Task: structure prediction
Amino acid sequence: MTTSQFLDVDNIEVLYGHAILALRGVSLRVEQGSIVALLGANGAGKTTTLKAISNLLASERGHLSSGAISWRGEVTSRLDPADLVAKGLVQVLEGRRVFPQLTVEENLLSGGFVRRPSRRALAEDLDRIYSWFPRLKQRRRARCGLTSGGEQQMVAIGRALMTRPTLMLLDEPSMGLAPMIVEEIFHIIRDLNRNEGVSFLLAEQNTHHVLQFADHGYVLENGRVAASGTAAELAERDDVAEFYLGAAATGTAAAAEPVQTSVT
Ligand code: ATP
Result:
């Protein structure tokens, strides 16, 4: 595989607790300026792939047992997650992890502090986020725990945008949200991509929505890449929705068995 000098995941294997092989030879690439979908049913390995990229596996007792990931030419395993954020790669974790006791605005500001900006720069960044998410401006003083699921997802994305990323990894942004809200969020993602140049790697079970917005896609099954291609190619393949994603593609959870291996 030739390198893109943006994000390159090259033949990675991930082990949890030295016993569970969650990824087996996964390779993928995100070109600068693109939206890439990472598809797969429950347990296929989407979250593990994103956490491997942003170096968050250690907290799960997981590690990269082979292969390599490079971000803008640098090997990510040598950088801690905060360094990666400072270098433009940020992850929005699954499940909209906002601070429920803080207001919407305080949550957004918490994303800005990592760069230690001036008060003025912080205020400008906040205005920028509100221009993308006008709903959040209206709700700025509301306690985040009291806002809707869609608003919390917007806060999670907005907080990540406060770090001024060039690549955002988003883990199942549509999870648990009504189709209209999912559509609204994907439209904002596409606008951010087109107008601000932010690239995205979107992990999703919801193929239907995400393939309308992505440029390229990879389908994971049991920790391997089972299919890849342009979003248009994947959208036309019946097997992607029906076989690889199982019931997940129609909105029902389908759990895959973990792959066991013995390591000495
Ligand atoms: P989901 O949609 O459920 O989040 P996913 O595609 O993101 O699914 P992963 O969460 O990456 O899948 O899981 C991949 C495999 O690794 C699964 O078999 C899962 O059981 C296993 N796994 C994930 N996290 C851990 C962990 N912390 N310890 C052990 N095994 C894990």
User: Anything to note?
Assistant: DSSP finds ten helices and ten strands in the chain. The longest strand covers residues 20-30.
